Amino acid sequence: MALTPAQIRLIDEQAHAARALWNLLHDWWTMLAKHQRSLAAADAAIRQARKEIEWLAVLPAQAAQAVLKTYYQAWKNCWEGRAHPPTFKARFHTVMSVDIPQGRDLQITRVHRRWGMVTIPKVGRVRFRWTKDLPAGAKADAGNRITGARLVKDALGWHVAFRVQTLHPMPEPHQGPQVGIDAGVSVPLALSDGNHHTHEQWRSTCDKSNAWLTGREQATLLALERRAAHRKSLRKQGERTSHRLRATYDRIASLRARAKRRAIDWQHQTTTEIARTYGVIVVEDLAITNMVTSAKGTVEAPGKNVAQKSGLNRSINQEAWGRTVTMLTYKAARYGGVLHKVPAPGTSQRCSACGFTIPGSRQSQAVFACKNPGCGWRGNADHNAARNILHLYRMGLALVPAAGRAVVRRARRVKPATAR
Ligand SMILES: [Zn+2]
């Protein structure tokens, strides 16, 4: 969005109010006795708080309702075993965002080939970059319309994301082949049929945030990081962060945001191609709660021996992998295909040719050479893992969602010789 400084301040205030409301709500909710906690009681409390607390009123009523809805959903995710309980949101570690849960007052118009106008509650008309065809104005009807929006801030500023409802004919079932996909070490995505999806920037150091930057950008980032570290070392304890240091931090953040956008763009292009080509896509399942408390730890308390603990030392980090799976899920459905998940353990150690798991078969991160004297299969380790993932699916070991929880439907244990 193209905003004036005054508009930026207004939306910033709304985002801070939304986060504060979440924290107040969490405080109130956890203080109550269990039988008193209900959606209706929370709704009444929020209405009262908005009347009594002046700075909460900057948040539009709709956005306040959206905070409650998200908070309640967070508890539901916890009760149904998908996530940890909700927690307080810290000022500096929370993505700033404001929900606009209804689309009827947005009044979107296109004013230029590349620009549109939208009405943001309590801010007014603002311009935004028209990057995707939107069902607005004459193009909108009962089936195709905008049902809401969300404002999100990153290092490059405020963005608006529209929630769109469109009518699509049911796709024909996809007749394409089956494929297993592994988040690889020597390539970002390894496919069981031997295809790889990689990108030019790919290095063995792809887990670093700067892998998506050009040589010159990487050099700039390094210089900025050194400058920031130097300035920080000169700062006395208790002294406030200087404007210069803050400006350096902002430039670092904007370079990292650029790298992240490039990574997401690549993921979109790759997953679309995969969903177009294959009818059945099989990936390994990674437990969500494990992702939250990964070996990496948090910014304040980094984990120890991270490289060893992350086991395969995956170059594609788990957040990126989770996003890939999300994209594949909805894109496969769009093209009439289907995505299955299989339990993860052992896929990188087992030989996909003979079915034996012999220690030491995986010679290095990239090379797999079977130690079974009767087999001796040799090949790319990621390719091997992808073939194992497809094999697990063909054995009927897919995870089936049951009552909101993923459970393993176990096939009878099969001897390695027949499991080939
Ligand atoms: Zn083998």
UniProtKB/TrEMBL annotation:
A GO molecular function term, named singly, is: DNA binding
Keywords of the record, alphabetical order, are: DNA recombination, DNA-binding, Transposition
Its Gene Ontology biological processes? DNA recombination; transposition
Tell me where in this chain the Cas12f1-like TNB domain is found: 321-389
Residue ranges of every copy of the Probable transposase IS891/IS1136/IS1341 domain listed in the record = 163-294
Enumerate the transmembrane spans: none
* NCBIfam families, alphabetized: guided_TnpB
Q: Which family does it belong to?
A: In the C-terminal section; belongs to the transposase 35 family.
Which protein, by its recorded name, is this? Transposase
Starting at the broadest rank, the lineage of the source organism is:
Bacteria, Bacillati, Actinomycetota, Actinomycetes, Streptosporangiales
